[in-house]
Amino acid sequence: MKFKVRTSVFAEVVTVIIAMVIIAAAFLTSCMERQNISLPLLANYELDTAGADRNNLRIGVVPGPYGDMYMEMIQPLLAAKGYTAQLVHYGDFIRPNFALAEEETDINIFQHYRYLNDFKMQNDLDIAAITEIPTVSMGIFSSRHRSLNAGGNNISVSIPNDSTNRSRALRVLDSANLITLNPAADMARVDISDIVSNPRNIRFVQMSAQTLVNALDTVDLSVINGNFAIAGGLNPSAALYNETLTEGYINVIAVRTEDLDKQFVRDIIDVVRSDRYINMIIDVNGKYSGFQRPRYFFDIMGQRG
């Protein structure tokens, strides 16, 4: 009888250990996925040759320049391949990814890679980035002051309230020398608690990213995503400071994971890596010439010699 009790206890201990190992492995896998920033190349795709493919594309967008970029720069080149396009507009950063996963749209074009990666993991969505696109930077704007040094101490600064763009805004403020972040912190996920120096006693006002422009006159400074700044009538060149985008913060085109092998995905990648598209973007007289360019632009331009 005693032997059976000990065996039972031993079995329970083994079961607990196995469960802990499984949980730890899942956690490590999740962390690795969060840290790994790699987008597929055109050569990675094996075409789905069975059945009809999608030719009438619905594109989810939010206020800003990316819907225009798609219709003005990408769609004309896709039209030559037989595609039509319809923009589906959303008012915030939340709905477009759910709409994509729920097949309300076929692609979306509005977010950077880190936001997409965090959002899909938090909400268990089967969506994926297929390519980066030229991206307008986040900037520090003001309707009260003409420089970052104006306004003295005890100033108010509005920033986005979603975790990904809040971290991004804090890094912008750090690079502009308005605050100092803890260098030991995870810079991809820094928060207000990671500020180690705030010499001007900044008071942070958090609000949804799409409302920052309308509330600009209520604060001393505001850190605003470039797409919402443009949609709200602000010129990025009027910003008191513009960020330099780092890896993971260039915007992407996203699709459902199940569509990764579809012809329309291959054609979109082919178009945004084409000489015609790149030439239109880098045209010094064009409205997208000031956007920060993905790395593949420089790779392709370098191959031209």
Poorly predicted residue ranges: 1-7, 25-36, 47-52
Tell me the span between the first and last alpha carbons: 82 Å
> What is the residue-mean pLDDT, rounded to a whole number?
86
Which range best describes the helical content: under 10%, 10-25%, 25-40%, 40-55%, 55-70% or over 70%? 25-40%
Radius of gyration: 23 Å
Dominant shape: globular
CATH architecture classification name of the largest domain: 3-Layer(aba) Sandwich
How would you describe this structure to a colleague?
This protein is of the alpha/beta class and 305 residues long. It has two domains: 42-135 and 248-303, Periplasmic binding protein-like II (D-Maltodextrin-Binding Protein, domain 2, 3-Layer(aba) Sandwich), CATH 3.40.190; 140-242, 3-Layer(aba) Sandwich (D-Maltodextrin-Binding Protein, domain 2), CATH 3.40.190.10. 37% of the residues lie in helices and 18% in strands. It has a five-stranded mixed β-sheet, with helices on both faces. A five-stranded mixed β-sheet has the order 9-6-10-5-11. Helix 2 links the parallel strand 1 and strand 2 (84-89). The longest helix is centred in the first third of the chain and has 34 residues, at 2-35. The relative contact order is 0.17.
